[in-house]
């Protein structure tokens, strides 16, 4: 059957997320055969993007579990050095090459196969994670992989120019030309799906203003994440991260791998919740997933309306050489404050919404150091959204009762907003609101080298 150039699909939720389009190239592959209701999907390995960490997949893992996917049949890789090099061929401290990522991903695939006994696994990647997936499949790993889902991966580059030939994000560079050569851009024998935004992805824009070069053509378009030979799906006005982590993206990921609609999109709470994770650091000012030894993690239950602590810490631990903390037993309706005291970093108070399910990827990283912009502040408070950006006027975004002044309108580009409060306001509550998620936190004194973060889950 020949698919039309633009097919409107039924989607969950309200506009703009309900409208999607299916696009196929001339070499479109067959979709994976529909699974019977009793057929379990293959094990799934989730792959994060540039500068990120496996914890971003937490809500996706919860949704998978809520649809009956066993926790031990899923895994999320945590690349040691998640940031790309400026030049893929030149070693750079605490940054990784495409070959580094290919090697780490190949090892993770082998481990998931060993753990589950499966002959092939499904791979799901966000942004740069899709590069590692394509690289491992094209270079000897196709027999280990059944499905490849690439979410917002800049498959034709963030830019496409004749300079910087060894930058992996250059569509005309050595790395991407190698992946994209040939009539079909996918590897036979593996079912490929791409998910992209309809104009709201900051890394798929014709103008260079989103990569620091306003007015300079990038040579790429909104269609940059698509691949000839793949099933290419457009998810409406979702941003660069949301095309991986939004409920709308979950539906398409699950459906493509399992061969059927998910039974539910909502996360089903567990009666008892155990949390654990990793404390990571920023050596040389570069975010890494390298463990931090000697960090202290204290967890407090807090009042969801005031941010005040309800008694003593419910968990306290010091990390060893592996950087891990936990497990901590909490209730699925508790709002929480995590206090991270890490060597040579600000004491960081992270306020979180209740955790409906258990997770072992509740990773913690101390806030960035207080800098010149903070010198006159009595308190520094940050509103952070790791699984998406703040879109104005697309989203309801309120920080201390106002739209954040440091969030740019239009194409969503900012995942954090900062308030600097006078000394007279130290200790008061502040509210971070994104859509229906609301976190109440407290302002801590910057004079004590403390920063507060309201970290959104959704």
TrEMBL record:
<feature type="domain" description="AFL C-terminal">
    <location>
        <begin position="273"/>
        <end position="369"/>
    </location>
</feature>
<keyword id="KW-0732">Signal</keyword>
<feature type="signal peptide">
    <location>
        <begin position="1"/>
        <end position="28"/>
    </location>
</feature>
<keyword id="KW-0378">Hydrolase</keyword>
<dbReference type="InterPro" id="IPR029058">
    <property type="entry name" value="AB_hydrolase_fold"/>
</dbReference>
<dbReference type="InterPro" id="IPR040664">
    <property type="entry name" value="AFL_C"/>
</dbReference>
<protein>
    <submittedName>
        <fullName>Hydrolase</fullName>
    </submittedName>
</protein>
<dbReference type="InterPro" id="IPR006311">
    <property type="entry name" value="TAT_signal"/>
</dbReference>
<dbReference type="GO" id="GO:0016787">
    <property type="term" value="F:hydrolase activity"/>
</dbReference>
<dbReference type="Pfam" id="PF02089">
    <property type="entry name" value="Palm_thioest"/>
</dbReference>
<dbReference type="Pfam" id="PF18067">
    <property type="entry name" value="Lipase_C"/>
</dbReference>
